[in-house]
Design brief:
extended, mainly alpha, two-stranded antiparallel ribbon, 434 Repressor (Amino-terminal Domain)
Length: 128
């Protein structure tokens, strides 16, 4: 929510400073956060991407699949048997996972996909 001057409203609740937003603005920000994906690195002068682009492409694939399945990062990390921090870094494209970690994530996503097919459409877990 903005005041007449266009500045956000700040409140202190339980000793913490918070920003007050109206519901449509909050929902817009949530949608924007759900759409976020890591950026590809800039290609060189010949139009070729650096090797790090593979990490970003992997991150995007995991992120998109997790969201399509309605899994939170916490749930996917638990299912894959990896640390939440590791999954977060992978999804941001900031971590080059080992082959065994990629296999664990892939198995967890495939398992969740099979469960979703069995349950039918409309039954999702919350995303984060």
């Amino acid at each position: 929510m903005k005041t007449k001057l266009g500045k956000p409203q700040y409140r202190t609740i339980a000793g913490k400073q918070v920003v007050v937003l109206d519901v449509p603005e909050y929902e817009r920000l949530v949608r924007k956060a759900e759409e976020w994906e890591p950026d590809l690195p800039v290609p060189n002068g010949r139009g070729n991407y650096p090797l790090e682009a593979l990490d970003v492409l992997l991150a995007r694939d995991i992120l998109r699949t997790r969201r399509e399945l309605g899994l939170s990062q916490t749930e996917l990390a638990r299912r894959a048997g990896i640390r939440l921090e590791t999954l977060s870094k992978i999804e941001k494209g900031h971590h080059k996972p080992s082959e065994s970690t990629v296999v664990k994530i892939d198995r967890a996503l495939r398992s969740a996909e099979k469960e979703k097919v069995k349950k039918g459409p409309g039954q999702r877990e919350p995303t984060s």
